[in-house]
Amino acid sequence: MSDAGNSWHGRFDELVGELRDGELTEEQSAELNAMLDLHAGARHRFAEQMQLAALLEDEVALGQLEESNSGAPANRFLAKPGYWSAAVGLACSIAACVALVVWFRAPGNLPGGELARTVPEPTPVSFVQGDDETIDEGVAVVTRAFRAQWANDDVPLDAGSTVTPGLFELESGLVQLEFYSGAVVIVEGPASLEFVDSEKLVCHTGKLRARVPPAAHGFTVLTGQFELVDLGTEFGVDIADDGSASVHVFDGKVEIYEPGSNRSMATHRALDATSAVSVSVDGTRHDVRPEPARFISASELQRLDKEESKSRLAQWREYSDGLKSDPRVIVQYSFERHNDDPRVLVSQKSDDRSLDGAIIGCSWSAGRWPGKDSLEFKRPGDRVRVNIPGSFDSMTWSAWVRIDGLDRAFNSLLLTDGWASMRPHWQIRKMGELILGVRNSEAKSHRDYLSEPLIDVFSLGRWTNLVTVYDNANREVRHYVDGELSAREALVPEAKGPLGIGEATIGNWLNPVSPTSNVRNLNGRIDELVLFKTALTDVEVRDLYEAGKPQ
């Protein structure tokens, strides 16, 4: 995520605009370069704007954008002739500064006793865009999580998260990990784990159960007392806080070696099914009786996860019912299928059905929990038509979405028809930024209030809470993802007057003054959308997320 202090964005965007227009002076060029060096995220912001400019230039002919029918000014990303050579030159200099650091450790080359924690602290998963393909730095995927609490709150690992190499501390709860090699590992907290690569895991403390199919033959678990090499089996490992350890084989066969021995056969021992060994702190090995009930199984974790999902759904429905009487709520769509008319999106706020939406093309699908519905948007025609009356000094948009792809230059969440003054466009750009576009009332201009990229390839297929706040009292726009502030930006002076929605489209866009509209359909699912006529605070946005988070 980005820092909340984005006051430099306005001046930075102005300088980039001058560059695009071919009017950047030498003094401005020096200022722009200084900002690129000073501010975290500036280089990415520059690169993304260049990419978006190219996308828009491919999508429409120069000068043909929305203002041809509505009178709005030409989009600021459309370039004048001659700007590309300067822009590309600067973009290349930025790209030259990017390096991919690859960490490598040879197998079995770790010291005995307490293992040194040499893997760097994990960072939030990101993707690296190479010349031709996106590079995946992950080694495993979290496929189940039951009341998991991680010590590093900046890197939450819930179901669907990709795990990169690094040290992770699970304080409590259960997680199931599927390694890229094919091994499936269930970890019970508290546990300290070091992810090395798709075939190797270091367990400093904690308890795990692993099922290793033939395709993952050779999967390795390193501990302070032994190195375990799997030969296609199911086993459990338990590492106590004092360093003593045990391994229990439930099926198949494993090999264990002394740590740091480079798998010397002098330290080798094979363990077959129904065998178990404990290793004391001084390295002494003892045969013990295997205890499969000591380690949680995949079926038991599935049962717990199902019960938890049922409980979370009931809690959310109770919270959602409370929103019906909340005077701040403009409209509330819980995306629950209406059995009498499944092509109507029922509004929970109005009894007269005037706020109900008309479903076009979309298919009903599974939502955040088993038993919860959602609408799936896939094709260019998929959309929900709504009409939301009223004028509002401030607003908050909140949606639970599952993005399956960012296929368009702009991917709609809720877009008002056309491009009228103070009728906002809420959408996601192709590079993953949340955007609130507002055409100003007193000037022939508009402002796109952007977050840093919130959605990347590793976010696809996961339920995410996106919130944007237009706070007129404090003259700013704030973006949030999963209850956390991502970006804030001051309103431009020209932004005056109340906001309105009126006729609008969920998951797509309609331009009523043109026989055609730019393709902006969402690729994914929505299972909740709520609009407030007030600016929710940081705490209120967090409460909204906590009430609706899947786990």
Automatic annotation (TrEMBL):
Pfam families: FecR, Laminin_G_3
InterPro entries: ConA-like_dom_sf, FecR, Ferrdict_sens_TM, LamG-like
Gene Ontology MF terms: sigma factor antagonist activity
Keywords associated with the record: Disulfide bond, Membrane, Signal, Transmembrane, Transmembrane helix
Transmembrane region(s): 83-104
Domain LamG-like jellyroll fold stretches: 393-539
Name the UniProt record assigns to this protein: FecR protein
Organism: Kolteria novifilia
